[in-house]
Design brief:
With 390 residues, this protein is α/β, with parallel strands linked by helices. It is built from 15 helices and twelve strands. It folds into two domains: 254 residues, Aspartate Aminotransferase, domain 2 (3-Layer(aba) Sandwich); 132 residues, Alpha-Beta Complex (Aspartate Aminotransferase, domain 1), CATH 3.90.1150. Strands 1-7-6-5-4-2-3 form a seven-stranded mixed β-sheet, sandwiched between helices. A five-stranded mixed β-sheet has the order 8-9-12-11-10. The protein is globular and about 75 Å long.
Length: 390
């Protein structure tokens, strides 16, 4: 029956197995361990001979509910929930790569992803090449005989650049490499990378999957072999596990994901169009604008344009900080995907650990401001930004 359900139904019903108590809402299992009926049963579970709960670092019913629901929404066979979005990316890297492997990664990714690959994975003899996200020829040319993995965010943080997932998957598979897509900005409500050829999808559940800025978490979705065994093995031994309480929060977030993403997109579209009329705004980045370089691709690949709008103000960092500081209710924080509108200066926050040269290559200007458009009145959001743009 679950295979016949639509997205909205899966987001509310998938994954929940009621206990003998008959609870309507999913139960939270705040326990570190589980009791076995006998020593033989304990041995069988530890040896993976029979299914069942062992220890909450790797098996917990509430976490399993979340994993099964998100896997259903993404169209994947398996999901591994982690302690954060970065833990999800790390688990993928440790699960599928080995010393001597090579990664091709977009320059247009979250700054910490760049740091993880460049400063830490290289310590384990995993090399990385960064390329322009939208230049498919650059991806092709960057591939080496030992390339094992291609990694991209689409839409990308913070300029909302978009890559053709199907074309990039074709490049990866021609060279026997995996394609990993960070689907944080769209979520499966707007984009399903696995259906477009990606092998693995990663999420910062902290963002839109929660939707209210309440908890940290991440997730990896894909097939039973790479995700269900290789990535899960990292979780089991490395301990980057999601807590049951956080999993319950994300389950509740998934129930309203579709309607929230629709509302975020409507507000973001209106804000982006309004920003194009402001004299102090030099550029506006939003896939829903016809002027966006990948607007037509976004229309084909996504069912909506998302809730992130970035724009450049004239006057560099000083002018950008004035706009940010002039707001009265927009939250000055680097988090995104919240019902509350958030605003940040990427060059000194999310991408502040990159070198000036790396930021320049990634298009992160000093006058750039990123807004995660919330669910407040769009008129109030515009008025709040207008205080610094007037």
């Amino acid at each position: 029956m679950i295979n016949e359900w639509d997205f909205a139904t899966l987001a509310i019903r998938a994954g929940h197995e009621r206990t003998e108590e008959g609870e309507h809402s999913e139960a939270i299992f705040p326990t570190s361990s589980f009791v076995f009926k006998s020593a033989a049963e304990a041995a069988a579970r530890f040896a993976n001979e029979v299914p069942g709960n062992i220890y909450s670092r790797m098996t917990n019913p509430t976490v399993r509910y979340f994993q099964e629901r998100l896997a259903a929404l993404e169209g994947g066979e398996s999901c591994v929930a982690t302690s954060s979005g970065m833990a999800a990316i790390l688990a993928v890297m440790l699960g599928v790569l080995k010393a001597g492997d090579h990664v091709v990664c977009s320059r247009s990714v979250f700054g910490t992803t760049t740091v993880l690959l460049q400063n830490y994975m290289t310590r384990f003899n995993v090399s990385v090449t960064f390329v322009n996200l939208t230049n498919l020829e650059a991806w092709e040319q960057a591939i080496q005989p030992n390339t094992r993995l291609l990694f991209a965010e689409t839409p990308a943080n913070p300029l909302t650049e978009i890559v053709d997932i199907r074309a990039l998957a074709d490049i990866a598979h021609r060279h026997n490499a995996l394609l990993v897509i960070d689907n944080c900005f769209c979520t499966p409500a707007l984009q399903r990378p696995l259906e477009l050829g990606a092998d693995i999808v990663v999420h910062a559940a902290t963002k839109y999957l929660d939707g209210q800025g309440r908890a940290l978490g991440g997730a990896v979705v894909g097939d039973k072999e790479r995700v269900g065994k290789d990535v899960f093995g990292v979780l089991r031994s490395g301990g980057v596990a999601m807590s049951p309480f956080n999993a319950w929060i994300f389950l509740k977030g998934l129930e309203t994901l579709a309607i929230r993403m629709k509302a975020h997109g409507e507000n973001a579209q209106a804000l982006a169009e309004w920003l194009t009329t402001q004299n102090k705004v030099a550029k506006v980045y939003y896939p829903g604008l016809s002027t966006h370089p990948q607007h037509e691709l976004a229309k084909r690949q996504q069912s909506g344009f998302g809730g992130i709008v970035s724009f450049v103000v004239q006057g560099g960092r000083e002018a950008a900080w004035k706009v940010i500081d002039a707001t009265e209710f927009c939250s000055i924080t680097a988090n995104l995907g919240d019902t509350k509108t958030t605003i940040t200066h990427p060059a000194t926050t999310t991408h502040g650990r990159l070198t000036p040269e790396q930021r320049e290559l990634s298009g992160i200007e000093e006058g750039l401001i990123r807004v995660s458009v919330g669910l407040e009145s769009i008129r109030d959001i515009q008025n709040d930004l207008a205080r610094g743009l007037g």
